[in-house]
């Protein structure tokens, strides 16, 4: 149901890097491919210094439907990913938890979503104790659809 192309619309996070660099946010798209029925291959496309990059990740199925595990490199670098709410035809709200830190991301099938969907996102953000002052909105133009072989991070 999550397969296909998504646009990163908004994100709520207490990440200090995000706060310091929020003026540099770039339009971001995500391609989701379902592997062997459960594992998800995620390709994130965004610009860095005006060059399109592809970041590849694998989300492994975790306990229960809509729950995934993103393993990083090194000890303690795993991220729990939970689908908070979704309508696969229009939006998905995902929670990312690493340790005690939680972020909430809103993805849309289009680069802009309805006010109703945005209201749902705000409710999810508030439910984890985050607020408008740590909510960031991504540009709705300047998307990348691909990256050359030298700009792929696995």
Keywords:
CO8G protein; complement binding; signal; Lipocalin; 154 residues; C8G; A1-microglobln; eight-stranded antiparallel β-barrel; single chain; mainly beta; 2 helices
Radius of gyration: 15 Å
Helical content class = 10-25%
- Helix count from the secondary structure assignment: 2
CATH superfamily: Calycin beta-barrel core domain
How are the elements arranged and paired?
Layout (H helix, E strand, L loop, with lengths): L3 E9 L3 H6 L6 E8 L3 E10 L2 E11 L5 E4 L8 E9 L3 E8 L2 E8 L6 H13 L7 E3 L14 E2 L1
Parallel strand pairs: 4-10
Antiparallel strand pairs: 1-2, 1-8, 1-9, 2-3, 3-4, 4-5, 5-6, 6-7, 7-8
Keywords: Disulfide bond, Secreted, Signal
Subcellular location: Secreted
Protein name: CO8G protein
Description:
This protein is mainly beta and 154 residues long. It has a single domain, classed as Lipocalin (Beta Barrel), CATH 2.40.128.20. Helices cover 12% and strands 47% of the residues. The chain has an eight-stranded antiparallel barrel with strand order 1-2-3-4-5-6-7-8. A hairpin with a 3-residue loop joins β6 and β7 (91-98). The radius of gyration is 15 Å and the shape is globular. The mean pLDDT is 91.
């Amino acid at each position: 149901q999550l397969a296909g192309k998504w646009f990163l619309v908004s994100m709520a996070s207490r990440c200090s890097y995000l706060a310091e660099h929020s003026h540099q946010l770039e339009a971001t798209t995500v391609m989701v491919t379902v592997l062997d029925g459960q594992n998800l291959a995620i390709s994130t496309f965004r610009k860095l210094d005006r060059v399109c990059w592809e970041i590849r990740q694998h989300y492994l199925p975790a306990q229960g439907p809509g729950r995934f595990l993103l393993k990083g490199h090194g000890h303690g670098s795993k991220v729990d990913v939970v689908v908070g709410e979704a309508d696969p035809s229009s939006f998905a709200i995902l929670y990312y938890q690493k340790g005690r830190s939680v972020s909430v991301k809103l993805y849309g099938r289009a680069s802009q979503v309805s006010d109703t969907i945005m209201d749902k996102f705000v409710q999810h953000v508030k439910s984890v104790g985050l607020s408008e002052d740590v909510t960031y909105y991504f540009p709705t133009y300047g998307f990348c659809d691909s990256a050359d072989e030298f700009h792929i991070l696995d």
